Amino acid sequence: MNWKPRLCCIVFVCLSGILSSAAGWADDTAVAIAAGGLVPRQERRIVMAKEVLRIGLDKVVVDYDFRNETNEDVTTEVAFPVPPYNSEVPETLPSQQTLEKFRLWVDGKPVSYQADIKATIGDRDMTEILQADHIDIPTFGHYFGKDNANHFFQESVPDFERLPESEQERIVKAGLFDDSGGPAYAKWTVHLQYHWTQRFPAHSVVHIRHEYAPCIGFTRIDSPSEVFEALAADDPPANADSVVADQVSLLSGFCLGKSLQKSMAERLLKSETDPVEIKNLSAGILYPQWVDFVLTSANSWKQPIEDFTLSVERGQLWIKDREAVVNFCTPQQMPIKKLDPDHFQVHLTNFVPKAELRIGFFDLPISKPVKP
Q1: pTM score, two decimals?
Q2: Torsion over CA of 265, 253, 22 and 113, rounded to 10 degrees?
Q3: DSSP assignment of 11-51, as one string?
Q4: Model confidence over 18-46: pLDDT tens digits?
Q5: Among 67-76, 87-96, 280-289, 338-347, which is the least confidently predicted range?
Q6: Do 217 and 247 form a contact (C-beta atoms < 8 A)?
Q7: 96 vs 138: CA distance, rounded Å
Q8: CA nearest 53: which of 330, 248, 369?
Q9: Are 184 and 84 in contact, with CB atoms under 8 Å apart?
């Protein structure tokens, strides 16, 4: 099995403008980009009467009921800003970053939106150069990478490769690409924002839904027993190496209870002698994945959120013959209600978000009954 980072990075993720993307953890790691809700421009008279947030590994769907309690219609720009991102992870698949992955409905009807796109290198605006050469900015020139039949990672940048050699040399010299190590590697930062004009009639409720594919963070933990031991300690060892310390910090952000930590550690230990786990090259290794969401973007509207529901879907992870386990720190430490084996829910009323959300998904060896 090839464990190159496989960032399913469809970067239609939202940020309120106050957070940056989460930091990477180690080799075989991808960065999650925090998502958030809709943000009004200079408008705090509209109440978020209801928010239903559904998070899975494949899709994030958010339904809102916005209420205008004033005696006047309110018309304002509503934005879905994407945090700046670049091509720091070569194995990212920006070819999958298609605009169609962000979808919007108002009162049940599909709505179009505008996209403002800019490319920068440092403080230089490189948008016009790229547009003149018809190089797609959000996907870094329609970058494409995949494993071939021999599990060798192949990369291609069609928008760059179709240019005359003289133009390729010119934009490489301008700093837009680095082609010294093989396929051209984009060097710009993408600034992307979706927005549209929204009318909120007086004394009325407007229902808005949007959905997108999240940018998933992941890593591999090769020595989970050491990490779980440090995580369980009241005072984590000060001499732990930086990788272990980062992994402890990561796992602590999922609010794993003591019993769950113990169960996970035991199952991973048993997997070291499991033929299936050994065959899949996953024996004794923990593969956390996570989806980030910026809850505090809701505070851009009139506070509080009167009715808030978070629903998390277990989903299917990467490795065959493993079980997906979900855990996360809930807003205001509210209990998690298990709706069925694959869906979990948290419900709050009059909710003012104070922290962001990180949903953890874990590939674990299937717990097998002990033979008599």
Answers
A1: 0.79
A2: 110
A3: ------SS--PPPP-SSS-B----EE--EESS---EEEEEE
A4: 222 222 222 344 445 565 677 886 678 99
A5: 87-96
A6: no
A7: 10
A8: 330
A9: no
Angle at 20 between CA 15 and CA 22, to 5 degrees: 110
Q: How far apart are the first and last CA of the chain?
A: 34
pLDDT in tens, 59-114: 899 999 999 999 999 999 898 877 788 875 444 444 444 444 789 999 999 999 98
* pLDDT tens digits along 177-200: 998 867 788 999 988 888 899 999
Sole residue written with tokens 């929204």: 198
Say which residues have a Cβ less than 8 Å from residue 315's Cβ, sequence separation at least 6.
Answer: 56, 57, 58, 324, 342, 361
Closest CA to 78 of 179, 191, 210: 210
Instruction: Identify the CATH number of the domain defined by range 35-126+188-365.
Output: 2.60.40.3680
Pairing of strands 46-55, 60-68: antiparallel
Q: 291 by DSSP, 3-state: which?
A: strand
> Per-residue pLDDT for 16 more than 60?
no
Sorted by sequence, the CB contacts under 8 Å of residue 194 that are 6+ apart come out as: 79, 80, 81, 82, 102, 104, 113, 114, 115, 116
With CA atoms as reference, report the closest residue to 359 among 14, 139, 32, 12: 32
User: Do the beta carbons of residue 101 and residue 194 sit within 8 Å?
Assistant: no
Separation between Cα atoms, residue 136 and residue 344, nearest integer Å? 39
What residue type is 277 in one-letter code? E
Average pLDDT of the chain, as a whole number: 81
Tokens of 225: 């027993």
* Tokens 């190590």 belong to residue: 181
Which residue from 34, 62, 33 is spatially nearest to 48, judged by alpha carbons?
62
**What is the CB neighbour count within 10 angstroms for residue 129?**
16
What is the sign, positive or negative, of the torsion defined by CA atoms of 92, 94, 96, 101? positive
